[in-house]
Amino acid sequence: MYQGFQYCMKNSKKLISGLLFLLLFTFSLKAGSIQGNVKDADNTLLSGVNILIENEGIGTTTNQFGRFTFENLPDGNYQLVFTYVGYKSFNLNLQLQEDEKISRDIILEEDILNMGSIVVTAQKQSEQIQDVPISMSILDDRFLELNSLVNIDVLEGYVPGFSLNTHSTNRPNYVIRGLTSDAFLASEQPRVSVFFNNIPISRTSGALVELYDMERVEVLKGPQGTLFGRGAQIGAVHYISNKPNQMLHGNVSMGIGDHGQNFYNAMVNVPLTDNFFARFAATYSKREGFVQNTFGGYLNERNTAAARASLRYISNDKTIIDLFVEYQHDTPGGTAFMSRIYPNQLGQIDVFGGTASFERGSDLGLERNMINTTLSGQHYFNDNLDLTTILSYREHDTDERWDGDGSAGPSLDFYEFIKTDQITFESRLNYKISKRFRGFTGISYWRENVNQTVRFSPNEQNLFFLFFDPQNLVDTRGNPNFIPALPPLPELGPLGGMPLPEYHVEESYQKAVNSALEAFIDGTYQFTNKFNLTLGLRAIADRLSLEGRNQLHDGEPSTLGMITGNYPNVLIKAGDIPQETKNHTSIVGRAVAQYAFFDALNTYIGYSRGRRPHVIQVRADAQTEILDDEKVNSYDFGLKGHISNQFLFDLAAYYYDYSDFQTRAWIADQESGEFQLIIKDGGKAHAYGFESNLQYAFSQYLQVFGNYAYIHARFDDTDNNGNRQDYAGNRFRLTPDHMVSLRLNLTFPVFKAANFYFTPSYIYKSHYYFEDDNTEGLEQPAFGLFHLQSGIYLNSVNLEISIFGYNLLDEQYLVSAGNTGNLFGIPTFVPGNPRRVGVSLKLDF
User: Fold this and answer.
1) At 751, is the pLDDT very low, low, confident or very high (cuts 50, 70, 90)?
2) What does pTM read for this prediction?
3) Nearest 5 degrees, angle CA 326-CA 156-CA 771?
4) Architecture of the domain made up of 239-844
């Protein structure tokens, strides 16, 4: 297979040249054509508009310049129908003479009950979301503007089947239909691809970005390997920022809230020439943590600054060149890993009490720097052929320190350093052949270098209690207990009486070089104006490489390490980790059939295959092991439509069949000396479910949005050989069976001077576990959150005044449970955000 892939890559120039010849030959045939531009009443070009020639049964969509073309048409009468969600349909009758070229500008009129057209690029072209045969959800610019001022976490509740679980900026968990993206090892690849402006940013330590001056977020569900690469095993999240345009405009905003929250945003868009535009945006957000540390500082706080410069050049509606340069700096405080066993220094044991006692004080926390530069170009040879090329360089480094025992005891002190740089290249040819076929073909290359260091720095005079007497790690007032030497216990033999060091630092360093060379092709053939079939394939050559070392970094050798067998360390055996390399070739793909009952109702059924690459990991004895790649077969069915632009619906059902499921597990074995979080083969698993996304406009002033997701994600009882599995019947972690959200948009004018809006929302999740082993106690009972955004826009001065409230009912819930303390039977718990309220001002100019 690998040789075949190399052959294809070596001959890709010949293949593309042949394709270009076929396209040029097709376009050179003598026949008539109909082309034009589609605009709205404000003269804004509209992309993604559907145009159907009824008597021919063929259709197309406008590109991002609002242009459309029908080539190779014989002479005759033609009836064109233009449809765009939120706009009235438009019919155009034309008579085409032999070899005649007709050009028309079309202006669409907005519908009174305009729910808003949503144009997406999930399939590498501009399309209305209702026409895309993929289960997907969109969060638009207005929604993001209102909600990202509170916290990015609130995005999860508004997308059925999607969660974003974040207890640390360094460790976001994107969860789609039961599958979690978390990848904490240097060579491990995520299951959910995260993209920013068409560039993969899936490495966990850099996958959480600040949302400011955004155009939209696209959340795609199901294997998306053909469209987004082999990392999109069960879905993809695509963040898309606003692009520079020809208008001179900008805005500034600021706000304050409780818990010391304050934020500032600014954007300015400047047309430098008629075809060269610039856009600059920046944000700063700070909020004190809602958990105070008695040793100093706050936990679970927010402190982020980010800026983006964007340049766009457009040449004669033929070429678009975009350059993005962005920087983000995060310095939040430490994570509140709260204990249900040990009191704080006030003598309290309360996960939601708002007070913790972590001995490192203000030293706990995270510092992260991210910088990204992306250059992309799109050239239209004609309306049926264009080439897109993207080149990006991205780097991010993070330093994080956390207290793993949830107490004042200096026993589980960890800090991690990660430095990553990534390059991405993709070149894609988009084409239309004849009247019925469209597709794209391309190649991509991605490479990352990851340097990951984890240090463990315990005071063994306190750590002793976790091994021999965990209940007495601290006293009843939360103060740590210490023992200077091992007691003369018979079971300790000659080790009895040996002194325990106060200062010891052991280190595990790993360096990974991961790369993927990919070739892909995807095409849609329109059999009739009602039925089309899409087929796509992506061939992938993966290369994963890992090496490193375990060592005593500083301080005294460990006495407890003589008991665990890891001397001179406690948790990891010292030694070099020789380079381990894994090469693998694979193919993922999709097949989707779509049928339109009529213009406003589409259905689709599809099969796709996804894959998560092999994992190279280092066990506590400094030996490496390789886990098989995880595979999934997916079956999807969906129904999308709208009724009179007043009621929009998106219904989906799915079934997933997994093999070699890569689950994580906490290993704590004093006899073998292994104390660590590992990836293991969970065997076979499956998931099925149903999702609905509904929008209804009662009037132009009142809209209701609702979604529901049912997810049944479980490990199978037996593996391929009929043997009972370790996690037989267990639920997938972080996966509630039921998720519901409701949102109301009420807007109305106050005379002609102002517009008022009121947007309450409620999000509900049923019970779920935090680990795949479904440990009792490491779970979250069913809960609901009530949010509110409301404000008024003063038309005469372009000023918006708004208030926001998050978790107004002050619901107590967890975002994490288990964590590092789980290794020693003292799990910790991270509380979710309490009630927060604030006010903001925004001025447009």
Assistant:
1) confident
2) 0.88
3) 105
4) Beta Barrel (2.40)
